[in-house]
Amino acid sequence: MSHNNCTTTHRPSSRLDTCPKLFGCVDASYINACYLCDELSDRYICQSCEALCALRNRSFLDQNLVSTGHYPQLLSADFDCLLVLDWYQYPWTTLVPLLKFHKQAQIGKVLGTWFVLYRMYRFYDVATLNNKKNKIVTHTQDNLAPRVRCEDTQTQSALYLTSQHLPEAMVPIPLHPKRERQRGYNQALLIAETISELTGIPVVTDAVQRSQYTKAQTELDREHRLANLADAFSVSLTKLGHYSHIALVDDVLTTGSTLNTVCNALYKQYPRLRISVWCMTIAVDDTVVEEFCEKHLDHLQ
Ligand SMILES: [Zn+2]
Q: Membrane-crossing residues (predicted)?
């Protein structure tokens, strides 16, 4: 089986290519209906709906979820750190299916942008510098820690991520070429490319390839999920040799079995690689929701 198709980088649609401003996903040439309320807007998600999503209030997500012990599917996680934008609930139960099954690629841009704004800049160390020039800086002056930036439109200053814990590169979870052709793009790659535009962290697209066409994981129970995934991924021997810490990027974490399988395939080739996961949303069951509702009322606001 040829893997060449897996390495193809799908460019975002022309609308995304011409989008002049990433923050708030504003596009001056884009006047259309908000994906959530249908009101006319120059944003993919209007400001009112973005405010209702209350992403700033989810302080309980400003942490490494692997170490919390609150999520059953993470108890056997094979990665060091998990950062998510939100639980898989409204609006994501509306937006993610539009992204994956209805060719609404712009939603990948919304996810990537909000992940940087609402999670990365609250989780990683940030320095604020009054520099309005739009220049991406990828390393600190001493060249030790990654230092990436994007602009805060409210303060008109530049925010720099300065953490030495920041991954050095992103690897989107690949689709099998057949599924990618059906879908028209890999949504994880769209998300990673948006994060890269905002932060300067590079995307490595051909390090992990999906070598088997597997059934949709949601159709299977746990035992069959693992069997379905065994040997589903192949890893390049050379593409990640320069990196000590990468982030896998995906849209929804349900059981975590796909991510664990990719991690173990990576460890076979790169035993000392540190892997973080940036998954935009995580599925949570009712008991987790109830527990958090008691402890963290802020997410209801
Ligand atoms: Zn709206």
A: none
118 CA from centroid of ligand 1 (Å): 18
CATH code at 54-123+165-300: 3.40.50
Q: The pTM is what?
A: 0.78
Compute the distance between CA of residue 9 and CA of residue 299 in angstroms, rounded to an integer: 37
Strands (DSSP E) along the chain, which ranges? 32-33, 40-41, 81-87, 126-129, 148-152, 157-161, 169-172, 208-210, 233-235, 245-253, 274-282
Say how many Å lie between the CA of residue 46 and the centre of ligand 1.
4
Distance 7 CA to ligand 1 centre (A): 36
Cα gap 42→27, rounded to integer Å: 6
Q: Could you report the per-residue pLDDT of 166-198, keeping only the tens digit for each?
A: 899 999 999 999 999 999 999 999 999 999 988
- In the chain, ranges of CATH 3.40.50 domains: 54-123+165-300
